[in-house]
Amino acid sequence: MSYVLNPATVEQAVQMLASHPGARPLSGGASLVAMKNARLIEPDCLVNLAGIAALRGIARQADGSLRIGGLSRHRDLAECALLAGDQAMIRQAAGVIANRVVRNMGTIGGAVGNADPAADYLPVLACAEARVELAGPGGTRHLTMPDYLLGWYETALQPGEFVAAVILPPAGPGPSVYRKLARTPGDYATVSVACARVGEGVRVAVGACGPAPLRSPVAEGALAGRLSDPAAVAAFGAALVDLSDPVDDVRGSADYRRRLIPRMVAAAIRDVTEG
Amino acid sequence: MQLDGSFVVCAPRLRVWEAIRDPALMAACVPGCQSAERITDTAYRAVVTVKFGPISATFNVVLDIENEVPPDSLTARAKGEEGSRASTVSALSTLTLSDDPAGTRVDWSTDVAIAGRLGKYGLGLMRKKIESLSAEFTAAFAARLAQTNQGAA
């Protein structure tokens, strides 16, 4: 048997998670409830975050950063006009997650907490240099995506912690794009690419090709100013392939994914340089 | 699923062999191993928890050493069940020890079958998980041997 607790504040939620070992934070439930129904997990206790006002809303902070509350649904992000310029890719990614029902239900806090390597948010957030805000018994801490994502489905989340918010740095003019190749619309990505224009260069993050999004600031530096040079773009793609560690699964073989990376990266760079 | 690998430990072969046959030492090095006990000289019982994303599965494992040639090689069969759940894991593993300029080289190969909840993640991801667990084991095992070497010196 399992039961549900309904905290009204972040502090209460943290306290409940700490005092009920085996409890799990429940956000939108798009993945967690599905896994529970499939009897893949049988949590004794769910701490339902839905009633915590502090986890809601998307707001510009005084320093220009954007704070996206963990309870923000995919649909909220897909329609959020504050996500523009070099962050428009986050809107795009939110809009292609699964299907309408899941987008009305699932939240960014839940998706980032679950950290599926093929999920759509991870590459766009890595590309946007977002920070994840974790609430827990030790207070609040902020981690960059590389520090947060530790391995396959493994994050820096400690027992009792949950994703309270995602913080985006002040937006640049962009443009930016999210390209996703999936077997069918709504499936997890076989390979995905997030790409944001920064002056004469780009930031690029590749999803679904390793435990965490692939990014190489060094290769980005070498590519700056040479976005229209096919050899430079090819070398950049090859550098990302070198970083990759894809799996063989139903969505494609590891080899297939390694072949897709340079093509999709080149296409994404064209998207943000042409027109 | 077939997996193999090798690692080199900075210790003489006999010492490495003794460590491999020491259930308490092995239990301390296997990631997620909560307890291990001897049933007979060639059979052991252990409780091992494997965590993968939101799924955490605890297996009661029985390990049978089917064949051993000290201090050269060993073949063991492990069978694990997850309590009342339908998840099972079984593995047939072979270890081969040989001398190496840096100490002892251990070559391992294993044939693993996993059924049940963890099967959700598919073989591709299971392979990655097992690779990362084996890297964790290797690091812990090497550290343990380095420690006891220092203790002896």
Report low-confidence residues of chain A grouped into runs of 5 or more. Answer: none
Strand adjacency order, main sheet of chain A: 4-5-10-6-7
**Whole-angstrom Rg of chain A:** 19 Å
Question: Any idea what the CATH architecture of chain B is?
Answer: 2-Layer Sandwich
The beta-strand count of chain B equals 7
Major sheet of chain A, described briefly?
5 strands, antiparallel
SSE topology:
The complex is a heterodimer of chains A (275) and B (153).
Chain A: E1 3-5, H1 10-19, E2 23-26, H2 32-37, E3 45-48, E4 58-60, E5 66-69, H3 74-78, H4 88-95, H5 100-105, H6 108-114, H7 121-127, E6 131-136, E7 139-144, H8 145-148, E8 149-151, E9 154-155, E10 162-168, E11 176-181, E12 191-198, E13 201-207, H9 217-223, H10 230-243, H11 254-273
Parallel strand pairs in A: 1-3, 2-3
Antiparallel strand pairs in A: 4-5, 5-10, 6-7, 6-10, 8-9, 11-12, 12-13
Helix pairs in contact in A: 9-10, 10-11
Chain B: E1 2-9, H1 13-20, H2 23-29, E2 33-40, E3 43-52, E4 55-69, E5 73-81, E6 88-100, E7 103-115, H3 122-152
Characterise the protein shown here:
The complex is a heterodimer of chains A (275) and B (153). Chain A has 275 residues and is of the alpha+beta class. Chain A is built from eleven helices and 13 strands. Among the domains of chain A are: 51 residues, Uridine Diphospho-n-acetylenolpyruvylglucosamine Reductase, domain 2 (2-Layer Sandwich); 97 residues, Enolase-like, domain 1, CATH 3.30.390. A five-stranded antiparallel sheet of chain A has the order 4-5-10-6-7. Chain A has a three-stranded parallel sheet with strand order 1-3-2, with helices on one face. In chain A, α9 packs antiparallel against α10. Chain A starts with a strand and ends with a helix. Chain B is an alpha+beta fold. Chain B has one domain: Alpha-D-Glucose-1,6-Bisphosphate, Chain A, domain 4 (2-Layer Sandwich). In chain B, a hairpin with a 2-residue loop joins β2 and β3. Chain B starts with a strand and ends with a helix. The model of chain B has no long low-confidence stretch (mean pLDDT 89). Classes of the chains: A alpha+beta (275), B alpha+beta (153).
